[in-house]
Write a structure and sequence with these properties.
elongated, 2 helices, mainly alpha
Length: 66
Amino acid sequence: MASARPRASRTGADARLHWWALALPALAFGLLLLLLAGSGEARAASGEGAGPGLVQVAEQLLRAVG
């Protein structure tokens, strides 16, 4: 029977990160950058045809839930 070697805990510069520890922050940064880049094309809604406001949406949600 082969003896199992104990795993040495790595700290400092020898520590390895999981792939998602780098991928998730990079993905979040990219998505936020896209949101910021696209916000320059946003236009303020004007007039009554802008759709329901926050109050109307909240009322509809409360009616649907309650």
